[in-house]
Amino acid sequence: MILTLSPHSLPRRHSLQDQAYQALRTAILGGELEPGQRLVETQLAEKLQVSRTPIREAIRLLQQENLVTLEPSGGVRVATFTCADAIQLYDCRIGLEQLSVVDACQKITESQLQQLEGMLEQAERIVTGKPTRLSCFRQLDLDYRFHRLLAQSSGNPWLVLLLDQVFDKMLLLRIQTTRNNPTVLDIRTEHRAIYEAVRSRDPKAATEVIIAHLNASKARVIREMEQIQLESKIVQ
Q1: pLDDT higher for 47 or 228?
Q2: At what angle do helices 83-107 and 189-199 cross, to 10 degrees?
Q3: Euclidean distance between CA atoms 98 and 158, whole angstroms
Q4: Are 85 and 173 in contact (CB under 8 A)?
Q5: How far apart are CA 86 and CA 57, in angstroms?
Q6: Which stretches make up the HTH gntR-type domain (predicted)?
Q7: pLDDT tens digits, one per residue of 98-152
Q8: What domains are defined for the chain?
Q9: CA distances from 31 to 42, 58, 74, 160, 206 (A)
Q10: Tens digit of each residue's pLDDT (9 = 90 or more) over 61-94
Q11: CA 21, CA 12: separation in Å to the nearest integer?
């Protein structure tokens, strides 16, 4: 994984606030800054070699996106999600992605189908070896790109925009769970079923498999989150 917070990482092409925001956002969604990790302005400013002002403004923007949370003490941490959050996010995805696959069945191009198939082949190669932190992030990236391409193939840019907002939170949620159990992901058999239904241009089958996939994913994530919470209580 490429680290984004190394010194000299901010070329002065855009405003320092924008650069700091993009660097921190990438670090959060890339797992370099992990869920629950405390963000210290002075440390981040030193790493990015900027003053604390652009860091503070970047954190404010990230807070608006619910990627960081402000503690009562005034500290800031990378957001973590509860089981209730996970259920609600998945319910949003189920509603939106049904629209995605139904329209994709009508509008997807041969080029887009080939891209989806390529992602399935990449997934097969990734999961053949022993799970690692890197392979886990590669699976997360493939999962995101697969679902986003389906949304794009629907021809509905508003749907893509709405899903992008959900995908960011989902990515952080998946990082929170897959760092303990990489098997939470299943981007081979379930994605294959979605692909086959869309390729057959069968909206009924596509709707059924996308709902089944997301419900199965939700169940796996909830189980993992409950296990994490249980282990946390035992440690305490």
Answers
A1: 47
A2: 30
A3: 14
A4: yes
A5: 28
A6: 14-81
A7: 999 999 999 999 999 999 999 999 988 876 666 666 777 788 889 999 999 999 9
A8: 16-78 (1.10.10.10), 83-235 (1.20.120.530)
A9: 20, 18, 23, 23, 31
A10: 999 999 999 988 889 999 988 899 999 999 999 9
A11: 13
Q: How many CB atoms neighbour CB 150 within 10 A? A: 25
Buried b (16+ CB within 10 A) or exposed e, 18-35: ebbbebbbbbbbbbbbeb
Show the tokens assigned to 19.
Answer: 């650069």
CB 170 within 8 A of CB 89: yes
Beta-sheet pairing, 76-78 with 38-39: antiparallel
Strands 38-39 and 68-70: unpaired
Which token pair is 57? 């403004």
Q: Burial of 123 by CB count in 10 Å (0-12 exposed, 13-18 middle, 19+ buried)?
A: buried
